Task: structure prediction
Amino acid sequence: MHFPFEYVILGYILIWGMFFLKPCMKPLFIPAAHLKEKPTDESKLGFGRIFTDYMLVVEYEEGKGWYDPKIMPYGPIELSPAAMVLHYAQEVFEGLKAYRTADDHIQLFRPIENIRRMNRSCDRLCIPQLDEDNFMEWMTELITIEKDWVPHAPAASLYIRPFIFATDPYVGVKPSHTYKFIIILSPVGNYYPEGVKPVSIYVEHEFTRASKGGTGYTKCGGNYAASIKSQVKAGQLGYTQVLWLDGAERKYIEEVGTMNVFFKIGDEIVTPEKGDSILGGITRMSVLELLRHWGYTANERQLSVAELEKAAKAGKLVEAFGSGTAAVISPIGLLDFGDMKVTINNGEIGSVTQKLYDTLTDIQWGRISDPFGWIKRIV
Ligand SMILES: *Cc1c(COP(=O)(O)O)cnc(C)c1O
Result:
């Protein structure tokens, strides 16, 4: 059998062509000269203060796409002072956790939802999206390398922070042509070192965080920059967080701090319906699925301050809580409406709130089986 030389060349081109069409995007591993000491006292981890040995860095250039993925030592990055992100905040991020199970597996909770949400944020901010498979593979590879950093202490975890920002050195408002995608990892402690405690919240009538047509439904840095003043005000007034109202009329409930919010009014559990101005939390989505699975009436609908005040006066506001990856479930014990203060469930965690907290954390840490297919085991 004789193959003409041209066939050999053609085959060669075809194979390399396939290779470049779905480029081999395995990150280059650059080992660190020294590894850090891991924290010995996991009860003192706090949140987001300690970072692991490695980070993932991927570059983007218009016309070239995402390229050059690297897992490299965690450290400062070089950036032009004119980098567009520093001036116009073209940036998006995500937040999720890796959990260590009792039998030493490492697992993630619904990571595909974070990947898809990041791409939706990218779309709104005119940032190029990432291939879902590449994102998942890069993230799992980084966590696999850093698996010893996933804490062992109860309710402690490894916080995962993916983010993308504009790097063109250019002063002028337009989409950047170049970006960096980075994932950093931070071991974080138990959010409730003294047990789950209800927080006090005031209803923010002055500042708003989002409005129709805006970026409230995305995780972009600018949203959070704009919320800090209100957060500071809450602290000065002696509250933990603020309850955000809609940007147009200050009439409808939106979110609480950086969490979605739920109220149990009589037998109905209500959370504001998603829209431009509400972040579609993955915890929110999971809470709704769990509640409906258990047979509760859980509705996503418009909820006004007036309705909530009325329910409170009638003694029908029986539970309230925030939901988000960091705290999972954060019960609300006191709501200050400005014209009235309401103590919910005697300032104690309600039974549905407790059941949600227990079930979600049991699934996340692998203490109970996961009938929903939410867990992705990576080690
Ligand atoms: C991240 C976030 C949430 C919660 O989302 P999860 O996916 O549950 O962590 C809610 N509201 C805001 C404003 C957020 O940034």
